[in-house]
Amino acid sequence: MKIIVVLPLILSLAAGSLLIPSAFAQFQQGGVDIPGTWFAGEGLKQGDLFSYSICHVDYKECTEFEMDLWIKGDKQVGSEEKWLGEVVVWDGSKILKGEMELGKLAPEPTGGTEELGVYRGAFKSSVVWLSAFATGYEEGGKTPKAFSAKSWGKIGNIGGEQVLPTAVETITVPAGTYETVLITWKTGGATSKVWVVDDFPFPVKAATLTHVSEGIPPPEYQFELLNYQENVQQDPFEDIIPTDLLLEELGCETHYDKVSVKKPTKNFDYQIHVFYGPEHPVQGCPMEFLIKFISKYDDTEFLNQVQYDFLVVDEDLTPIRSLAQEDNKLYLYSPSGQSQIDLLVQEEPGIAHYVIWIYGLSPEGVVPSSNPDYVSLDIEISSPGGVIVADPPKETTTIPEWIKNNAGWWADGAIGDSDFVLGIQFLIKEGIMKISS
Q1: Would the pTM of this model clear 0.90, i.e. be above it?
Q2: CA-to-CA distance for 84 and 73, rounded, in angstroms?
Q3: How sure is the predictor about 19, in pLDDT bands with cuts at 50, 70 and 90?
Q4: CATH of region 10-229, choose from 2.40.360, 2.50.20, 1.10.150, 2.40.128
């Protein structure tokens, strides 16, 4: 499968702004027969509380996380007044907490807590992606868009597909049931969908696909509204403690440089470049891996459609732990050849045997025809107190000093046989010397 990277470059319908040849820019007609207009951020106000489940292809191959956003109030940034939002992200075992600034005419994140950067990016490229077409500005190409409009604009990838209001649909998401307008566009022949609600600031659901030239297109982003409340005046996240603070109390490293390991697989079918951290992981603390699957012929060529698993094994390569199974999957899947893995170290202090097991290369759901191959990483795990626990020392036997003296004196004829025998009897009684029947 060849993936074409799609940048959110938007070609406005304004005169002179179309850069796509007419052979590719076939006009598609949309529009629904209801009154009204919509733009991203419409009706957004202080006290709004949103909760979304989100995934984006640029973050862990569209691994889902939850983002909760509370509009705390206004913030003056230079000459511009923006919304100030309090944010909590629930990403697997991690909880992150911070601030996010949003524009008022186009609610795109423009700043905030540094640790939330990757999540702000996913939010901008998914939940508020339609702000590339429809904003609160009253002039220019990015104005509020009518539901009856034939098109809202064109996407700037190959084909220049139209973004269209397509249908009126009643849909149910965890936050409730909504009367929506379905917004669609096609990429690579597949239809992407976003559902918007009149007078509601953000879409309530999306299922979009990455543009590909061949094969099955993977998701570009997906989200749905989990909860929505109005007029929330007291900080709803006041009692939430971010994971970083808890980990610091437990003695876990939260800021570290990653270790780089690059090696071929056992049978030399692939190259694997792994970055992991911290260098000295602690039992009970988190650990992260960035895995790059690379062609054995070319260091710059990423493999795609990789079916794999991340295992902990014993000395005989027998699996003790499988991250795919922990996620209720048969295997893990990387369409792009890069994968980010976060795990909680469950392994006992000492040497842990981690294995990246590659089943092969094939589309998701199709069994690879090649033989599996693997790379192993032996990493030393520290105890929660920060001390690496070695194997317990072997028990040693100590012979009392007076026994040694007796033996020497007996050999020199200084003591008799009876005294020497008393020493031998002592050794037998204490289990130091074992005499067979």
Answers
A1: no
A2: 5
A3: very low
A4: 2.40.360
